[in-house]
């Protein structure tokens, strides 16, 4: 029996045995636009944002949406219109923010491998802050900014060596991770930054990982970061803003992360207790703003019973939705429409058409399906379409944004001609 409302996704529910996102019937959208199809709920995104805004009521805070989670222009436009800035990690993401009408002054630039070109583009655009991740990067950024007659605003991203207790691929704040500056090197790095001609120190930053479902790692990282703020300021370098990064998890499969407002009430109480409550704050949430706002719709192509396994072959694959293949991630899979009485159940691996054994969307799922049925893969608003590729020369799916009963295409389905557009056969054929 499928629970109603479905776990994790507040705007998703069955009405007369047909699945709706807000007031839009998903089977209709799948038939109109084809599958695979991503559908996002603007209401769910705004509700998730509102939980953060409640948590920070009365504080000086800039919410910078970590757009790597879902960088559709329409999603960026929605968050920009509700006051968000953006956490970017590439020149491509900067271009998207500008195309979506985002305010460059509210942009922070993270990432361990910013190129000189990207630094120049970001300085030209007038972004709010570079979150610098190494001493070598500091030197290069100073050189680039000075050559433009500018001083780049910088935060140092510190690595607090806190275990976020998440998947190892998405843990970023441990000593063995490539991110940030070891907290023992933080003071020396700030001293170097404040001596460089092309830099202006404005803040401190930390991000310990993603899909974090406990509050302790956030509290530990906060304490460590505040120790560093105290040490850096004692050395005469002012820290104007404190950036706590992102990382709050969502409910994929009965996960119980703290609610954003409850978590922030706790973190802010600690901040107050240590005398930093009136600082300018920044946060960089990604997944918790969009993950449970999206579904990926797919059609069952074939059922393939086997001796050891039954396979349900669908038309979405690891290139469209890579999280299961990459992290063995769980996404619930449910039917879009009423299942006829008497149809048999079986346990299936739900797999895509890509030629890899790792191409699966769900394992050991109890389903009553037939070829031609439509299914929804849930909690796919974050790091799904955004991590998609065209592997096996599969054009990227279309995307739709819904708001109430209004549904609008925000990305056209790519065509095979689109895939061929940037390639050339060499003139000199061997
Ligand atoms: C620097 C930085 N900030 C913010 C985020 C957003 O993380 P999440 O989507 O887990 O909130 C990430 C991704 O983990 C990141 O690398
Ligand atoms: N791509 C990861 C999250 C990465 C976070 C980026 N630092 C996921 O799907 O869970």
TrEMBL record:
Catalytic reactions on record: meso-2,6-diaminopimelate + H(+) = L-lysine + CO2
GO-annotated molecular function: diaminopimelate decarboxylase activity; pyridoxal phosphate binding
Residues annotated to bind pyridoxal 5'-phosphate: 247, 284-287, 383
Binding-site residues for substrate, renumbered to this chain: 287, 323, 327, 356, 383
Modified residues (N6-(pyridoxal phosphate)lysine): 68
Domain Orn/DAP/Arg decarboxylase 2 N-terminal: 49-290
InterPro entries xref list: Ala_racemase/Decarboxylase_C, DAP_deCOOHase_LysA, De-COase2_C, De-COase2_N, Orn/DAP/Arg_de-COase, PLP-binding_barrel
GO biological process: lysine biosynthetic process via diaminopimelate
Pathway it works in: Amino-acid biosynthesis; L-lysine biosynthesis via DAP pathway; L-lysine from DL-2,6-diaminopimelate: step 1/1
Residue positions of the active site: 355
Domain Orn/DAP/Arg decarboxylase 2 C-terminal: 38-381
Annotated function: Specifically catalyzes the decarboxylation of meso-diaminopimelate (meso-DAP) to L-lysine.
Homology family: Belongs to the Orn/Lys/Arg decarboxylase class-II family. LysA subfamily.
Quaternary assembly: Homodimer.
NCBIfam families documented for this protein: lysA
Name recorded for this polypeptide: Diaminopimelate decarboxylase
